[in-house]
Amino acid sequence: MFVAICLVFYTFGLLLGLPLLWFLKERRMPSLRGYALGGAIITLLPTAVHLGWIAFLGGLTPYIAIYHIAFFGVGGAAAGAIFYVIAQRGSRRKVNMAP
User: Fold this and answer.
1) Alpha-carbon distance 40 to 22, whole Å?
2) Are 20 and 38 in contact (CB under 8 A)?
3) What is the radius of gyration, based on Cα positions, of the chain?
């Protein structure tokens, strides 16, 4: 089950993260806040699908909903912020390596 969940999150991350990355680079808006917000949104989309499935089955409680939204929202924001730091470090290397 864990592997299936990881594959779902990686799939959502690629399908939604790459267009967001291209959008932010095209608009020249690479900021920590933008990447953190994007990471949180991308992580919360599959979480919303999962919570919808739990609600459909009749097992959704407020505790489960709040816990999932808080846990995955904060985790996605942290992942987006880490990606921003990595992306900025890579762009600095390209600038420093130019003759």
Assistant:
1) 17
2) yes
3) 16
Taking only the tens place, the pLDDT of each residue in 58-77 is: 988 999 999 999 998 998 89
Q: Supply 5's token pair.
A: 């969940």
- Residue partners of 14: CB distance under 8 A and separation at least 6: none
What pLDDT digit, counting tens, does each position of 39-62 carry?
A: 898 888 888 988 999 999 998 899
Sequence-distant contacts of 8-15: CB under 8 A, at least 24 apart? 8/46, 9/43, 9/46, 12/42, 12/43, 12/45, 12/46, 13/42, 13/43
Which tokens in the block code for residue 20? 């967001």
Q: Which of 42, 32, 28 is nearest to 76 (CA)?
A: 42
Question: pTM for the full model?
Answer: 0.69
